[in-house]
Design goal:
The protein is mainly alpha-helical. It is built from nine helices and no strands.
Length: about 140
């Protein structure tokens, strides 16, 4: 099941039409349709807005544990457009590592903000995110 299938399923469970979800997430209905059909890959920011509109947790309800790495693949979410990152990035930090650190930073912020309110499922999802990040920044072949 891909992210579009999951969004469609959650939308239907919430009794939302594509138009209602689009309005709540502040995007077009046609874009929601293309996401659900797997023709578009939404940005992380857009996925967050969809999760809020569906009243669900992004990494628990929309992105299954273990699927985070597929969501954040290098070609889909380029970091090189960020000029500030380019000028301040140490030379040892690859783009893939920068992406992993970004994902980790988001997960860490969630933990800091909601540390007293995280459920067991949320903690497990956060653990999956951290494991994914670590696998991205760990050199291949034990280098």
């Amino acid at each position: 099941m891909n992210i579009g299938d999951i969004i469609a399923k959650r939308r239907k469970e919430s009794n939302f039409s594509q138009e209602q979800l689009a309005e709540a997430a502040e995007i077009s209905q046609s874009y929601i349709s293309r996401i659900e059909l797997g023709k578009e890959k939404p940005s992380f920011e857009l996925l967050e807005r969809i999760a809020v509109a569906l009243n669900c947790e992004l990494f628990i309800d929309l992105v299954p544990i273990g699927e985070q790495r597929r969501l954040f693949t290098p070609d889909e979410y380029p970091v090189e457009d960020n000029a500030a990152l380019q000028t301040s990035t140490p030379t040892w930090l690859t783009l893939e590592n920068a992406r992993a650190l970004t994902i980790f930073g988001i997960a860490y912020q969630k933990l800091e903000i909601e540390k007293n309110t995280l459920s067991t499922a949320e903690l497990k999802a956060l653990e999956g995110i951290i494991e994914t990040c670590l696998s991205l920044i760990t050199p291949k072949g034990g280098e």
